């Protein structure tokens, strides 16, 4: 296996692909051309680098979710937003092809394979789409055993240009009209935006998600801290799940059927 959960290993940046004004895809080369990342759904890895800021150098470690398929050979992809105050994201965006970074993992967030359900709700904000995309690809892949699973994705972004993987997500909706529903919510929409505007709110979630009483269901939430706080409550500082709060709590969803990615 190319990655190790017990030690950091060095991986070389092979490709950079600009996705929009502040998000890029970074492709890292695996040791062998036929190697696969073997990262289970849904999992993340840790990036590590020594970063100098204001004359001080310190080790920075941050989690990132791969967006390439488990079976992709020879490489692993990450879609990363350039946050002005994000030490690691700024560092990654400053990298050039041929540079290396240390990666350790995988660390499984949620074991979907052992706990598949029939109804899945997803609430994603910005790059919080990446773990959701892992799972969507697993559920709707060509050899997927999850033929009865239904997914509703509520995807919140500031502007229309911020919608990541737009064509792929719309493709799932066209191909699986009875099983996949995409709801894009735009905070600052153009005048002709046809969908929901502003922020994700209680009325929208109540309208499109499975009822809280449905036992064979799970709600996944991922996004920046203020988004998490509003929808479900954020994780604890130690990254454990923390108490359920926010919109989902108000609607009657229970702790064991909500998972914060």
TrEMBL record:
Belongs to the flavoprotein pyridine nucleotide cytochrome reductase family. GO terms for molecular function: cytochrome-b5 reductase activity, acting on NADH. It comes from Rhizopus delemar (strain RA 99-880 / ATCC MYA-4621 / FGSC 9543 / NRRL 43880). One of its GO terms (cellular component) is mitochondrial outer membrane. Keywords: FAD, Flavoprotein, Membrane, Mitochondrion, Mitochondrion outer membrane, NAD, Oxidoreductase. It is a single-pass membrane protein. FAD binds at residues 62-64, 79, 81, 88-89, 130. This is NADH-cytochrome b5 reductase. It is an enzyme of class 1 (oxidoreductase). Its EC number is 1.6.2.2.
